[in-house]
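Hello Y.,

Per our agreement to keep a running log of every chain we model this quarter, I'm adding this entry. I've kept the format consistent with earlier entries: sequence first, then predicted structure.
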Amino acid sequence: MKQGLIILIFFLTVSYKTDAQMPDSLKYRSVDPEDFLTLIRLKENVLVIDVSLPREFRKERIEGAVNIPLAKIEKRYRKYLSSQPVILLYCTNGFRSEQAAIKLYDLGFREIYSLKGGLWAWKKRGITTVK
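Predicted structure for the entry above:
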């Protein structure tokens, strides 16, 4: 009986701590280039955001993307929050887009996708970019 009570207290403590904060992996979905392209083509109310630096964005980007650098994502998100678009994020290698996805989730967006491998993976698959 005493051992059962200890186990129950342990599970209640663990579940309390896990409910307090959602893991980052559940805040957004990381998708490969083909799925990212499908989302662009098929989803309605899509916003494609390149979170790279402006000079990187000017050099090469995905057609239709807007540039909101990672450092400015928290300042410029309000413009889009009311329409709750599907957010598709990318950067050069995927690292900054994952950070932006977490920030945007915490700011209230709920349908967020990050391009796995970033623009490098996109180009490696032979999908066109705008230069």
